[in-house]
Amino acid sequence: MNSDKQLSSKAKIVVVGNGMVGHHFVEEMSKHEDYQVTVLSAESRLAYDRVYLSSYFAGKTAEDLALTTPEHYDELGVNFETNAKVTNIDKSAKVVTTESGESFAYDKLILATGSYPFVPPIPGGDVEHSLVYRTIEDLEAIQASANVSKVGVVIGGGLLGLEAAKALKELGLETHVVEFAPQLMAVQVDGGGGRVLRAKIEELGVQVHTSKATNVIEEGDKHRYKLCFSDDTVLETDLILFSAGIRPYDNLAREFDLELGARGGIVIDNQCKTSDADIYAIGECALWNNFIYGLVAPGYNMAKVAVKNICGEAAEFTGADMSTKLKLMGVEVGSIGDAHAKTEGALTYTYENQPEAIYKKIVVSADKTKMLGAVLIGDTSEYDSLLQYMLNDIDLPESPEGLILPSAGDKPTLGVDALPDSASICSCHNVTKGDIIAAIDCGAVDVGQVKSDTKAGSGCGGCAALVKSVADNEFEKRGVEVKKDICEHFAYSRREIYDLVSVEKIKTFDELLDKHGKGLGCEICKPLAGSVLASVWNDYILKKPHLSLQDTNDTYLGNMQKDGTYSVVPRIAGGEITPDKLIVLGEVAKKYNLYTKITGGARVDLFGARVEQLPPIWKELVDAGFETGHAYGKSLRTVKSCVGSTWCRYGVQDSMTMAIDLEHRYKGLRAPHKIKFGVSGCTRECAEAQGKDIGIIATENGWNLFVGGNGGMKPRHGDLFATDLDDETLVKYVDRILMFYVQTGDRLQRTSTWMDNLEGGLAYLQDVIIKDSLELNDVLETQMAAIVGSYQCEWKTTIEDPEALKRFKPFVNSDKNDSNIQFVTEREQIRPARGQEKIEVTIIDAAAETV
Amino acid sequence: MTTITDKLWRTICGTADLVTDSGISALLTNETGEEEQIAIFYLPNSEEQIFAVGNYDPIGKANVLYRGLVGCIDSEPVVSSPLYKQHYSLKTGQCLQEDETIAVYDIRIENEQVQVLY
Ligand code: SRM
Ligand SMILES: Cc1cc2nc3c(=O)[nH]c(=O)nc-3n(C[C@H](O)[C@H](O)[C@H](O)COP(=O)(O)OP(=O)(O)OC[C@H]3O[C@@H](n4cnc5c(N)ncnc54)[C@H](O)[C@@H]3O)c2cc1C
Ligand code: SF4
Ligand code: FES
Question: How far apart are CA A315 and CA A33, in angstroms?
Fold first, then answer.
């Protein structure tokens, strides 16, 4: 910006191009004090995220996509110019000049000019609505054209072409993809994968035309243009979008005599230097080892290497892996290494599931010991481990096909021990296994710290599980116990506390604290101990010694709302309720002026009850035959169900009866976290059972059992645990699973994370529960039977106990009630008054009153 | 601003009304009719045994503190707000996580009577 900054004594670094890679270079370079960086951008704006360009059509703005701002560059002390296309390089004077005639002297020059879309020279192709897909301006043009078009064609069925097709589809056009090769994504995917991919994409309403060469573009009859193909077929369209590959912006090198590749690209060496020792080239304009990388990660690497070399540190660019995993129009696609099995002697294993459109292939060495490549379409869950096998040259298991076969559970898992230190764990931040070990060497004591020290996992987040297992494995090797202390008062995990309580027959928190803890306890260990005591002994939860352990929700047997009032949720097992009971709910709500709502768990919630109203409300409900719904507890919540064979014409089992029986069996059970069930009467799955901790789906022959599903913050579908069970076996399995969870789960761990954290995961759990590998099943069943047998409705017990009722008096010394609780009416019901809606009440701030 | 009148030890309730290791609430009404809600905690295992603080949670903006769990953090006796779990020192009223303070009151047990100075 400011030319007098150029006069400083610092070494002058000039960067041509402010794309993704140029920007990365600027950020890295500006960390070094002794250099003055100037960046010249041909575009009208500073760097933005091209990788997420398509999200522009999903509502992202140019601002959202921006990677930097003028203010940020100012802060970094970086000079910059936009609309500043460099047109001249004087290598001997070391000066570059822009289109507008401004000159910039350099000590080191960095070419980061990127690439441009290749538009094949088709006669008649140079028309108004013929467009490309590379910059924000391109997108604006596409949007404008789409507004006046009905049909759009993308020429090119590669990765970017499919992304462009998605954009056209989202813009509401009838969309076609025309590909010269016989298949889609020919670079990354093999023939079989291309077929499955095509089927999936056509299913989404995009028409695919392969083996089509466009000869000429003419004026159309029904639409603006007509594409005429070499096989004499035609296709009419209003908009043409070219995505036929990219070409490096190497014109500066061409004109000013830097070495070029035979087919373009600025030749660089391992230091990213061009044929002129003071000029570097990085990113998509650079040709390394006769190869141009069309991905951003290798470009970032080049940028780092260039910065280091300029600063006199040793660093080399030695190539990059081109494996990719992505989601195209909702279709998962993964390509690893030698996807086309071009290596001599390579053997392949293929798995194809046509009904679900899943295709998986692995390519292995002739002796079947090494992974060479893979193609995954429709399901990329094995991508990470396959990639690690290949990148790190790890020996394959005996039957490599096991790596991609869906052989329920016993898939060989890749132990993290087998990974070499150089294994890349987090590709976003280029963190290797060695980096993680180094972080632990430097004192990181838990996974959280490893993550913050290395940045691993803070990009796309996809590597989080791998980072954790590498770190945990390392901690374990060092005999560092992975710290699971629940809080400062107890140096134990929940599981250990469970064992202490049951083995030593501890019955109260005080006893536990006395023997194994310190201090007074806190809001973490007290409810935890309360939950463990309840699951081991199943005592009434408000019994005196347990009372002070419970969170307010458990103490008052309701969920506290924002204004200090409570919600009332009676159990409605399986969602089945008689008209009479519905009327009771309505009458109670009306009498106490409560807000009523059907919950997301398919039952009725009454909101806005003051503490003092809870006992009379519950008395009326209990008298009418209701019991507590435990909406407040870390315990069984709801068993969602459908009407099943009783009413539904498709139902194959009586899901209603099963749901109600299960709900009554497990109600009141205290667990590490809440538990939800679903029971569906057939595979249509109207009860969404696969989204529940325990999911049960009727089959012709019995029940399929799913474990470990949940909604919430990180939704997960349950895993199929066992099939075609009869009623008795089903209940037995569920007994055992829940009891094992109650005993071994960590605090606030849902069944999904619990199962994933068991070493061996689902397969291990199946061994324990089905094969009784720990010989624990008798104990688990006996314990569950004891808990089921000693159930009591906590509200019933509470309203019968005058001592317990004392807790529900608003003030110990007054019959008034809390004047700060105020409601207003909205849609004919109450809701808490917001700050400014409240009538002034005197709450004296005594802290301010003292002299 | 209220004038500072002489404060007196006034009886709130009997010790039988206290709940061990937990809280109850009380309404203080002064001569001019102004009301304050307080939370009283009975922790027999702590040095002071009994504490009184304001019942209003300035972060959750509701009168709920007596319903919070009590315990200690680094040996400071605290109540944890039942709404958003911040800790308030029972000795000083200082919030350990945010820049907020609640009132603290002098409280004692005399002849099985719980008395607050106000
Ligand atoms: C009332 C209700 C919303 C509604 O207006 O419909 C609700 C309300 C609350 N949910 Fe929920 N959830 C309700 C259905 C759900 C569902 C839907 C379902 O059950 O099918 C889910 C997703 C399914 C699941 O749990 O897997 C759900 C996932 C959560 C989560 C996230 C759990 C997770 O594993 O990520 C929390 C937070 C937590 O538990 O830590 C939560 C926590 C809460 C709390 C307890 C938050 C709080 O501490 O105040 C809310 C108070 C409950 C109350 O006042 O009664 N609620 N919540 C629903 C009561 C259902 C019932 O009949 O008991
Ligand atoms: C739609 C889309 C999706 C993509 N998805 C992915 C993906 O999922 N993963 C992935 O790894 N990669 C993806 N890419 C590729 C990725 O965007 C590029 O690899 C990356 O942007 C290359 O960065 P660069 O800085 O080398 O080039 P560019 O980002 O192209 O930047 C070069 C800049 O230099 C400017 N310039 C050129 N000549 C001059 C000159 N003479 N003077 C001044 N300035 C000049 C250009 O105008 C441009 O602004 C995608 C690309 C597109 C278009
Ligand atoms: S989604 Fe959030 S706001 Fe809605 S009920 Fe659940 S916890 Fe409350
Ligand atoms: S791989 Fe994306 S955050 Fe680690």
Answer: 20
How far is A534 from A526, CA to CA, in rounded Å? Answer: 12
For A104, phi then psi, to 5°, come to -135, 125
Write down the pLDDT at residue A839. 74
CA distance A436 to A479: 17
pTM score, whole prediction: 0.54
Q: What is the pLDDT of residue A165?
A: 93
Tokens read off for A661 = 């029986």
Cβ(A42)–Cβ(A84) under 8 Å? yes
Element (H, E) at A432: strand A431-432
Residues touching ligand 1 (Cβ under 6 Å) are: A 559, 567, 569, 597, 599-601, 603, 605, 631, 637-638, 674, 676, 710-713, 750
> Are the CB atoms for A733 and A705 separated by under 8 Å?
yes
Size of interface A-B (CB pairs under 8 A): 125
At residue B15, does pLDDT exceed 50?
A: yes
> What are phi and psi for residue A197, nearest 5 degrees?
-60, -45
CB atoms inside a 10 Å sphere around CB A240? 24
Query: 């809280």: which residue's tokens?
Result: B23
Band (pLDDT 50/70/90 cuts) for residue A477 is: confident
pLDDT in tens, A146-182: 999 999 999 999 988 998 998 999 899 999 999 999 9
Distance CA A831, CA A253 (A): 70
- Taking the CA atoms of chain B, what radius of gyration do you get in angstroms? 14
Closest CA relative to residue A849, chosen from B29, B54, B2, B117: B2
Q: Given the CA of residue A459, which atom of ligand 4 is nearest to it?
A: 3
User: How many angstroms is it from A844 CA to the middle of ligand 1?
Assistant: 35
Going along chain B from its start, the domains and CATH numbers come out as 14-117 (2.102.10.10)
Q: What is the dihedral angle through the alpha carbons of A229, A231, A234, A240, rounded to the nearest 10 degrees?
A: -20
Phi-psi category of A564—alpha, beta or left, where left has phi over 0 and alpha has psi -120 to 50?
Answer: left
DSSP A481: P
CA of A724 vs chain B CAs: smallest distance (Å): 45
Tokens 């709910």 belong to residue: A585
Going by alpha carbons, the residue nearest to atom 1 of ligand 4 is: A426
Check whether A426 has a pLDDT greater than 50: yes
Q: What gap in Å lies between CA A255 and CA A14, rounded to an integer? A: 18
Q: Which stretches of A363-479 are DSSP H helices?
A: 383-391, 433-441, 447-454, 464-477
A532 and A494 in contact (C-beta within 8 Å)? yes
Residue with tokens 């996809």: A462
B78: three-class secondary structure by DSSP = strand
- DSSP string across A699-750: ETTEEEEEES-B-TTS-BPPEEEEEEE-HHHHHHHHHHHHHHHHHHPPTT--
Alpha carbon distance A242, A129 (integer Å): 11
